[in-house]
Amino acid sequence: MTLLQIVLLVAGGILSGAFVVLLIGRPYVFRLRRRLLTDPTSGLPNFEGFHRYMKRHPHEKFMLFLLDLDDFRRFNHLGYDCGDEVLKRFATKLSHELSGFAFCARYRLGDEFLVVAREYELDKVRKALEKINNEVVYKNDPVHFTFGVASVNSIDADGCNAIRIAHDILISKKVAQ
């Protein structure tokens, strides 16, 4: 056997091995990617998922809502599993009510959520949020939230500046309550 034949055999083996790895590993890669972009508690996209969404829509004009659950500690004091259940119920209701016209994500690891909608959907989102604010209940204890809203422009393509503005508005609302 010549050196050229050995090299061709090895190269063929490497290529076929790479093909098998891609064929078998592809579903694993998709599952891994989903896990990296999804919050495990709420099932919503996480902050990285939010950034990916914003990167896919760089030139659109959005309104960003930052929602913060009011007095969420009272649920965690009952046990973290209770707090997790509240987050799940809230996330399910939020994504269901805003499905088709807004993107929802969990913000960081606390009790805050992001909602992104096109500017022309602003009134529709506000009405849906008002409805949600009166419908999520855990063990006869209503789950309310406060939100701030800000515009996302092309300069703030990742939404970070809008999050800061929405956060400031949210805090001023909470202080006023």
Automatic annotation (TrEMBL):
InterPro entries: Diguanylate_Cyclase, GGDEF_dom, Nucleotide_cyclase, Rev_trsase/Diguanyl_cyclase. The chain crosses the membrane at residues 6-25. It comes from bioreactor metagenome. The keyword Transmembrane helix applies. This is GGDEF domain-containing protein. One of its GO terms (molecular function) is diguanylate cyclase activity. CDD domains: GGDEF. Pfam families: GGDEF. Keywords: Membrane, Transmembrane, Transmembrane helix. Residues 60-177 form the GGDEF domain. SMART domains: GGDEF.
